[in-house]
Structure formats: structure tokens, C-alpha cells
Amino acid sequence: MLFRVSVIVVGMLLVVATAGPLPAADNASQGGDNPVAGQPGGAAAGDGADGVVKPKKAVKKEPPPEPEPLPGEQLTIKQVMNILRTTRNLSGKNLSGLKLVGINLSRCNLKGVDLRRANLERADMGESNLERANLSGANLKMANLRLSGMIGVNLENADLSGAIWRDGRVCAPASIGQCGESISSP
């Protein structure tokens, strides 16, 4: 009878040996830092209730915001676009020489803005406040200026060919510095 009991015990040990090691009661005492989910010793912090380790989401780092330009400092296209997305107030800003072809500046505060030699071809500046703006030498071909406030605007050498003027008329070709009468055909 003793022989039969020892065979059964040896058989059980073989089953246990092929199944792998028994789980430890305290994973930290075993020196392990990556416990197997569902075993005593607990799952790692942040694991789901089902014991499945979930990957951590990558945190996107946003670039630091661009510093505010100093008074009179020329803005970049990126800075102009950021202002247009928020306040639409470019009052007193320096946009001289920028390529702003087709830009939407409608209903913007452009009071005192410096747009010298800027390329504003096909730009929409309808219903904007352009009071005391400097547009000398600017390209305003086919730009929309309809209903814009233009008191004290400097248009010296600005090309207004085909621009839509404040009152809705289209400026004649070769209108430099002022909106020339467009000749309409009968």
C-alpha cells in the first residue's frame, strides 16, 4: 500500500513540475518587477480590471507658443494666421512685405496696420477698418475693399487694378494710388 501512495505522490509532482512554477505570494520578495496578470502578487498599477496590461497613450507635446512680437516688429505668416483665428485684430501690426495672396481679412480691425509692399492680390478686406493704414506700394489687384473704412489710408503707388472699391465699383486696369474709373461697355 505504501508503494501505491508514493506512486500517486510522484505522479502529482510530475504534473506540477510540467505546469510551471507555483505563483509567489509576494512578487516583490521574488525580485520580479513585471508580475503576470491574474497571479497573486497583483497586477501592475494601471492594469485593467481583467488583468490585461493596457499600453500607455503617447502624450503629444505641443510646441511652445510663439512669443508676442514687439511693437513695430514684423509679424510672420504664422502669427498673422493665429491672430485671424482668434481676435481678428491686426491694429497697428507690421505686415510689410508679406505675401498674403487671397487672404481673408474681412471684418478685421486693420487700423494703423503697416502693409507697405505687401502682396494682397485677391485678398478680401471687405467691411474692415483700414483707418490710417499704410498700403503704399502694396499689390491690391482684384482685392475686395467693399464697405471698408478707409479714412487717412496711404495708397501711394499701390496697384488697385481690378480691385472692388468701397462703393462696389471695379477699379480700372493700371489704377495706381487711386481707384480709376472703369470703362464699362454698353
Word description of this protein:
This protein is 15% helix and 0% strand. The protein contains 2 helices and no strands. It has 186 residues and is mostly loops. It has helices at residues 2-19, 77-85. It has a domain at 86-178: E3 ubiquitin-protein ligase SopA (Pectate Lyase C-like, 3 Solenoid). It starts with a helix and ends in a 101-residue tail after the last helix.
Main traits of this protein?
186 residues; little secondary structure; Pectate Lyase C-like; 0% strand
Order of helices and strands: HH
- Number of helical regions: 2
Which whole number gives the mean pLDDT?
80
**Fourth CATH level, the homologous superfamily of one domain:** E3 ubiquitin-protein ligase SopA
**N-to-C span:** 126 Å
Shape: elongated
CATH topological fold name of one domain: Pectate Lyase C-like
| Structural category | little secondary structure
Mind telling me the C-alpha Rg? 37 Å
In the CATH hierarchy, the architecture of one domain is 3 Solenoid
Mind describing the biggest β-sheet?
none
Q: Please report the first level of CATH classification, the CATH class of one domain.
A: Mainly Beta
Would you identify the regions where 5 or more consecutive residues have pLDDT less than 50? Answer: 27-32
Which percent band covers the strand fraction?
A: under 5%
Helix content: 10-25%
Write down how many β-strands occur, each being a DSSP E stretch of 2 or more residues. Answer: 0
